[in-house]
Amino acid sequence: MAVAAALPLLFGALAACSYGSDKKSDDDPKASTAPSGSTAAKKLSTDEVKIGYFPNLTHATALVGLKEGFFQQELGDTKIKEATFNAGPAEIEALNAGSIDIGWIGPSPSINGYTKSNGTSLKIISGSASGGVKLVVNPKKIKTLADLKGKKIATPQLGNTQDVALLNWIRTQGWKVDAQSGKGDVSVVRTDNKITPDAYKNGSIDGAWVPEPTASKLVSEGAKVLLDESTLWPNKQFVITNVIVSQKFLSAHPDVVEAVLRGSVKTNAWIKANSDKAKADANSQLEKLTQKALPANILDPAWQSIEVLDDPLAATAKSEADHAVSAGLLKAPKLDGIYDLTLLNKVLKAQGQPTVDAAGLGAQ
């Protein structure tokens, strides 16, 4: 497949790095056992499933579902081994190596992993979260969107999901920026999320297009939200987290994958019905995994801006790739077959919920 050199950057680490996410990838996954009252009706085809995710609010489905036991209830005697990651490439490597079977991950590394393997490594099997990305600015320097011209705006990484979103927005304003250097009518400054707040405080940037909880951290330092990215998308939804599976594992153990998806769907429904408890669960898991809980002034607005869902919002992932092509960061990737929503739709139908589609990028 023809993929430009910038593709690894575009579809690299998921940019939603949490301020509770300083811990390195878990090299010794933790085993979970089934709680009493397991609803799994029969023994599944494997004794173990290895699940990967980030210690991050945008991975709330994994955080809450594991803590509340929804996944284990569906898996019965099949044990869960958990592994946590701070970056998409590391999780994709683990999936390819068989160190994990199923993972919660952003659209960029999902697409990167699929295209690099010529469509053989993984499938996106469900959505998990939408939203949680904002443009926050210094209100003394920027009062309207038009004021961004001539200013310095941070994104997490050259070619990452938020970087592409900002470059695309700049293009829609009729302004010009060189995608590689970030120089132009707006200065796009690529800055790691962990140091963006310090860059804001010392005045080296005037604002940032960033995911949560970085956006709320900046607000706690005096910045103001000028634009919520969700307002730029149909129905105010765009994918920030997917569920992926190794194609080898999907082929060998579809019953286990289906059980995990049942747990995911049930978790998302429970989160929507119990938002405050779910938020506390997620923060408790962050503290357990990283020794850092988020303070309420960051946790509350960050949580509010993230929507858990089952729909992978495939059309928005395709649009994100198209925006990267328009920005000149890559040649069009071939994404046919990246989604396999067969088991998800089976689960949704069984629960009387509407099915979802793959925007023409379904399993071939």
Quick summary:
The chain is an alpha/beta fold and 364 residues long.
Structure description:
The protein has 364 residues and is an alpha/beta fold. 38% of the residues lie in helices and 17% in strands. The chain is built from 14 helices and twelve strands. It has helices at 7-10, 60-68, 70-75, 88-97, 107-116, 161-172, 196-201, 214-220, 247-252, 254-273, 275-290, 296-304, 314-327, 342-350, and strands spanning 30-32, 48-53, 79-84, 102-105, 122-131, 133-137, 152-155, 187-190, 207-211, 224-228, 239-246, 306-308. A seven-stranded mixed β-sheet has the order 1-3-2-4-11-5-12, sandwiched between helices. Strand 7 (152-155), helix 6 and strand 8 (187-190) form a beta-alpha-beta unit. The longest helix is centred in the last third of the chain and has 20 residues, at 254-273. It is globular and about 60 Å long. The two termini are 17 Å apart. 54% of the residues are buried.
Give a short account of the largest sheet: 7 strands, mixed
* Low-pLDDT residue intervals, each spanning 5 or more residues: 1-39
Estimate percent helicity: 25-40%
Order of helices and strands: HEEHHEHEHEEEHEHEHEEHHHHEHH
Please give the radius of gyration in angstroms. Answer: 20 Å
- Strand order, largest beta sheet: 1-3-2-4-11-5-12
Give the number of helices.
Answer: 14
Main attributes?
364 residues; alpha/beta; seven-stranded mixed beta sheet; five-stranded mixed beta sheet; 14 helices; 12 strands; disordered N terminus
Could you give the topology of this structure?
Layout (H helix, E strand, L loop, with lengths): L6 H4 L19 E3 L15 E6 L6 H9 L1 H6 L3 E6 L3 H10 L4 E4 L1 H10 L5 E10 L1 E5 L14 E4 L5 H12 L14 E4 L5 H6 L5 E5 L2 H7 L3 E5 L10 E8 H6 L1 H20 L1 H16 L5 H9 L1 E3 L5 H14 L14 H9 L14
Parallel strand pairs: 2-3, 2-4, 7-8, 7-9
Antiparallel strand pairs: 1-3, 4-11, 5-11, 5-12, 6-9, 6-10
Helix pairs in contact: 2-10, 2-11, 6-13, 8-12, 10-11, 10-14
